[in-house]
Amino acid sequence: MPTPNDGAACARVIVFANQKGGVAKSTTAEAFAASLTARGHAVLMVDLDSQPGNLSMHVGADKSLPGTLELLELRRPKREKVLRCIQPTRSFGDVACANEGLDDVDKLLNSRMGRELMLSRALEPILGDYDFVVVDTPPALQVRTLNGIAASDDVVVPCMADASSVAGMKAVFEYVAEVGEFVRGAQPRVAGVVVTRYDARNSLEPEMFDQIAEVAADYDAPLLGRGVRNTVNARKAQYNGVALGEFAPQSTAALDYEEAVSAYLDGIEALPGLGRTAGSYYS
Ligand SMILES: Nc1ncnc2c1ncn2[C@@H]1O[C@H](COP(=O)(O)OP(=O)(O)OP(=O)(O)O)[C@@H](O)[C@H]1O
Ligand SMILES: [Mg+2]
Asked: Which of the four pLDDT bands, split at 50, 70 and 90, describes residue 274?
């Protein structure tokens, strides 16, 4: 668990979002969390998706403990209260898990002033404890996803090489622009797109890959890596609650995710104004 905030550093919050379901948002969030942890960074995962088989389940979280439900419910998020919503995992850093009843929080959020800023506010007291906060979102642009995007510095869009995933990616790009325009203080940027579950042997996918690159370029979003190849190891790792990089470190997808994480970190290094602190993002 984290040490008290010395105010010296501030986590970068990365949110993983695509309006389309099943495009490997959670797999990509887990792979980033595991890789950043393995590189020596302090990582917190926040699971905003209550579906069965979600990130919390894959990382072996105890869902009977307080998690994102309690986190989002906090009216005055004091550090000690926020820390009670977080538990450690074996290889993914810490997690605020998506526990039972998370769906009920939507009604509560919708009745609150500043409803899209509840996550941002709740994370504030512990941002100094982590290098990265990895946020996984549900497959819809709803109030919890908006909370994730509004709390983020970086939006990473996992996208499969098919038309509906590309439409879901575009919707996120538009949404990010809107958040920046309408939500005071929120300045997320699209950090990049990870092409997921990629199968170059499927004749349509290389063509769709190029289309993803074109659409992303229209929004100034880089592709992070050359795509994550489709492999049964990704499913097996999730089934066993183990990070892909640990379960099958030499599998194609594990290596592809390492490439994507390195590209993401290079992108941060290149950001203007981060020269002084960028070194802290590398182990
Ligand atoms: N590289 C890969 N190769 C093969 N299968 C993969 C790969 N990446 C992810 N999968 C599988 O695809 C399925 C969907 O992945 P995941 O749950 O990460 O998607 P998601 O976008 O989070 O879904 P949802 O929208 O339901 O939250 C899972 O069964 C996962 O194991
Ligand atoms: Mg998911």
From this structure: low
